[in-house]
Amino acid sequence: MRFGIAISNLSTFGGLQRDCLSIARNIVAAGHEVTILTTEIRGSIADPGCSIQIVDTNNRTNPGRDIALGAALKAHRQGFDRIIGFNKLPMLDIYYSGDRSYAKIKTGAWRPFSPRHRTQMRLEQLCFSPSSRTSLIMLTERQQNEYQSVWKTPESRFRRISPNLDPARRMPHLRTDGTRERIRAELGIAPNSKVWLSIGSSAWVKGFDRVAAALEAFPDSVWVVVGVVPVSGMGSRLIQKVTIHARGRTKIIGIRDDIPAVMAAADLLIHPARIETTGTVIVEALANALPVITTDTCGFAPLVEKADAGVVIAGAYSFRALVEAIAMARAPGQQAAWSSHAKAFGGDPSLSDGHEEAARLFVGELW
Prior knowledge:
Strand content: 15-25%
Number of helices: 15
Strand order of the largest sheet: 5-3-1-6-7-8-9
Structural class: alpha/beta
Shape: globular
Distance between the termini: 17 Å
Oligomer: single chain
Number of strands: 15
Largest sheet: 7 strands, parallel
Order of helices and strands: EEHEEEHEEHHEHEHEHHEHEHEHEHEHHH
């Protein structure tokens, strides 16, 4: 079969982009032909083993890219047996959803007057309205429920897949082979310090300001932040905030390739995100025996409860709830128990099956 896969942009940094490239490789490995259509390549990406076609657009806004991709799909429709979108687009046979409903998260009385809003709503409608024929792949139950609450999409058009944990990032043995101590020494962290870890490139979305405020309540704790470059604007703002709350106890270490090793050095992953479709970092933490404190806005938060490996803050966020969750982790034996539970749960190989499942759905009969 000949597959056309459309995605707004390709890079090595975005989770959706990594999903797209990995699934494309699985489809090619199954003997099919794949062409990826995108408006932009950011940075250097590994060869996906298929053709990549750049779609020209003079409009660099998200709706502008989507419109350009939609026009390209229309022009090339006869060249593909099946068209798959990683963004909401017209003419899709299958939509792989890495985000939440635009209708749910973009609210406000002024929104309908915005051309951008109208364009995005129309694209979402084309994929999710009851009359649409687009098959839909979701990453979490919460995500599916949100779309159905807006569009009343029939249950039969949805499929959910497992998480997409890279097996190479499952390394719980690093907590006991000396790596934990080595990374702490490298970062200048005392052996008896309580180490919090947060990972992400968007500080506000990931709730880093919430973690910074909580740090003041725990003077024996050190906070390690991965994904934010200290010299960037975001890094400067974060440094300013933690200077107010906890001078000298924050390590902003930029982008790292050795995430399992950094996780081994930590005692808790603290991820009080405001908006998070999935939260793959949560799955990675569990796979690396790292207990998790997160919010129930994260699609993968239920896995923390299922594993009994941390705390999920339910309902409207409060500073008090975060402090109480961190305090709970300090009870005698609690952190060790959570870590043991996380290691057992994170060893489940099905946590890495998502991309293979998606590829099989793409190649199989439409539903």
